[in-house]
Amino acid sequence: MILEAAVLDVKPGQTRDFEAAFAKAQAIISSSPGYLSHELQRCIQNPNRYLLLVRWRRLEDHTEGFRKSAPYQEWKQLLHHFYDPFPTVEHYEPLSGAV
After folding, report:
1. CB of 93 within 8 A of CB of 8?
2. What is the separation of C-alpha 67 from the centre of its chain, rounded to a whole number of angstroms?
3. pLDDT in tens, 67-91
4. 8: how many CB neighbours lie within 10 A of its CB?
């Protein structure tokens, strides 16, 4: 399992529109091959900041499968104009033997 983590800084005054767009966009990502689950959380200290966590079966399910798919173009159209700066996306894997 791979955990994708992205800190999303949404432009001031656009959080409601972003949340509405994300409600539509989550159907796109959740139907992608290799997708396992996701969660979107809003920062308490900075209400324009969100943390998106997506669990994928393999790294390539995100980087090759989702990002190179036609549905990703719709995802981009729905969400990418809300971000400033554009988010850095990182991927994590569990440590073997970690509790």
Report:
1. no
2. 11
3. 999 999 999 999 999 999 999 999 9
4. 20
pTM for the structure as a whole: 0.93
**Cα–Cα nearest to 54, from 74, 26, 81, 79:** 26
On whether the CB atoms of residues 10 and 43 are closer than 8 A, the answer is no
The residues pairing with 83 across neighbouring beta strands, listed in sequence order, are 10
Tokens coding 84? 């400033």
Q: Tell me the sheet residues that pair with 29.
A: none
| DSSP string for residues in 9-73 | EBPTT-HHHHHHHHHHHHHHHHTSTTEEEEEEEE-SS-TTEEEEEEEESSHHIIIIIITTSHHHH
CB of 34 within 8 A of CB of 65? yes
